[in-house]
Design brief:
The chain has helices at 13-27, 38-43, 58-74, 84-93, 121-134, 143-151, 167-172, 178-189, 196-199, 216-225, 240-253, 266-272, 287-295, 307-311, 323-335, 337-352, 357-373; strands spanning 2-7, 31-36, 49-50, 78-82, 105-110, 137-140, 157-159, 203-207, 231-235, 257-261, 275-278, 299-302, 316-318. It is an alpha/beta fold. Helix 10 runs parallel beside helix 11.
Length: 375
């Protein structure tokens, strides 16, 4: 079986997922070729890769890339597109192949919602309808996106798992007790040149791209309202203009928030934290929430998308865009050790039940085979 993985620009969870899935499928004898943007290829180890992404080198290059992708698709069994742009590109580059004896099957995984204010929303909705009606199989990372795909006319839509490759390693580590958390936190925070008194305060962690969808201004506002002393660290990089605005907001509100950029030791920050907070406007199956649960860190997250199913019963869900709710939930966890301990145990148990990369690859191999048998 020959599969093309089609993926646009990604620096986070989607790229991680495609890289892991590609490795696991190759172990099962699948010939996987990843077609992606040069920036994405530089961030992840995809194995066999083609840098044929329209828009990365002008119009002439774009037309050439589409032509090359079409030729490759015609020699493949499956074109598996990840995300809205990839889905549209897969649809357009395979026009006229439906009904051919050896034409490829088109499978789409939607990883993100189209949010209000995202720009060109009507055009994006039109593209989503086109993709849904053309795809042989639609999958999505949250139940709301599955329902949306069916509403757009998809013949079949399934909920797909996006596991974090870090979860097994975190579960293998002994759960950090209070003194261990404090020791790890002190070691991590010592590099930030903070006041010694601040170093002794409980650590709250957020891991997030610096992007509008993540609602980080709401996080800063929430941090300024938290009554219990804490130090709040945000790991992740992204839009420098958004980051500059956030830094101004931190200073204006006197919020105990420190943006430290992307870090390779994110798992240790999770093990050190008393609370993990994710204030996003929308999320599917964020890897960082899976990792926080596996690390034994109680989660505060907005009740949106796939977070509802993931965090319900294992953490605290709050309304999106409400800094007061986030502040109150964070305060509860900082002030109530018994609640923290209960959610730590629930989160670890839930993480143990999550599918891993091998489980996910087996499910995808079954879906590929079923799709190839469809008439």
């Amino acid at each position: 079986m020959k599969v093309i993985m089609l993926l646009g620009r990604s620096t986070g969870g989607i790229g991680t997922h495609v890289a892991q899935l590609s490795v696991e499928l190759r172990k099962r004898g699948v010939d996987v070729i990843v077609v992606t943007d040069p920036l994405t290829a530089s961030r992840f180890s995809f194995g066999t890769v083609r840098l044929w992404w329209p828009g990365s080198g002008g119009w002439v290059r774009a037309l050439r890339d589409i032509r090359l992708l079409r030729r490759l698709a015609l020699t493949s069994d499956i074109v598996h597109a990840h995300g809205h742009q990839s889905a549209l590109l897969a649809t357009l580059s395979t026009l006229g192949t439906r009904g051919r004896k050896h034409g490829p099957r088109i499978i789409v995984t939607e990883h993100n919602a189209v949010l209000k204010g995202a720009g060109r929303r009507r055009l994006k909705r039109f593209a989503q309808r086109l993709v849904a009606k053309r795809a042989d199989l639609m999958t999505a990372v949250s139940r709301d996106l599955v329902d949306e795909a069916l509403g757009f006319g998809a013949r079949r839509a399934e909920l797909a798992s996006v596991p974090s490759p870090r979860v097994p390693g975190l579960l293998a580590q002994r759960l950090a007790d209070g003194p261990t958390r404090a020791r790890i936190a002190t070691s991590l925070l010592s590099s930030l040149a903070l006041d010694q008194q601040v170093l002794a305060e409980p650590l709250v962690v957020t891991i997030s791209r610096i992007a509008p969808q993540k609602n980080l201004p709401v996080l800063v506002e929430a941090a300024s309202r938290v009554r219990n002393p804490c130090i709040w660290v945000v790991l992740g990089d992204g839009d420098p203009c958004v980051l500059a605005q956030l830094q101004l907001q931190v200073r204006a509100l006197g919020a105990p928030v420190h943006f430290v950029g992307a870090r390779s030791d994110a798992d240790q920050w999770l093990r050190a934290a008393e609370v993990f907070v994710l204030p996003s406007e929308w999320e599917g199956q964020p890897l960082v929430v899976q990792e926080a649960m596996a690390a034994g860190t109680p989660v505060v997250a907005t009740d949106v998308g796939g977070l509802h199913d993931m965090v319900r019963g294992t953490g605290l869900l709050v309304a999106p865009g409400d800094p007061e709710e986030i502040a109150k939930a964070t305060d509860r966890l900082l002030a109530e050790p018994a609640l923290r301990a209960d959610l730590v145990a629930r989160g670890r148990d839930a993480a143990k039940g999550l599918p891993d990369g091998s489980d996910t690859a087996s499910q995808w191999l079954a879906w590929y085979s079923e799709t190839l048998l469809m008439t």
